């Protein structure tokens, strides 16, 4: 995705993630704050990292790509909350590319 010039907020990040990889819906649900329904992005991204690694090991390139494309966009175009939550996944993916 190219930079659109708009800031990606948490709600839109989750919407884009679900559109790109509907199978992560369970993780989104599991990482909602029970009090206000907000998705706890740091926890979600931690789970997404584990899912992406598992999918990579299983040869599911489509799922890995979907997760990484949206996460990279969050890192690049997100507000401070989204960028901060996305940072770990993006860094780990970039390290893996250099190996």
UniProtKB/TrEMBL annotation:
Residue stretches making up the DUF7674 domain: 15-85
InterPro entries assigned to the protein according to its UniProt record, in alphabetical order: DUF7674
Pfam family, one: DUF7674
Entry protein name: DUF7674 domain-containing protein
């Amino acid at each position: 995705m190219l930079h659109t010039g708009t800031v990606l907020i948490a709600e839109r990040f989750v919407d884009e993630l679900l559109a790109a990889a509907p199978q992560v819906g369970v993780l989104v649900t599991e990482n909602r704050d029970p009090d206000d329904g907000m998705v706890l992005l740091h926890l979600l991204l931690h789970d997404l990292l584990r899912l992406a690694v598992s999918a990579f090991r299983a040869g599911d390139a489509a799922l890995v790509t979907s997760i990484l494309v949206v996460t990279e966009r969050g890192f690049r175009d997100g507000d401070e909350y989204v960028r901060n939550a996305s940072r770990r996944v993006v860094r780990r993916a970039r390290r893996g590319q250099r190996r």
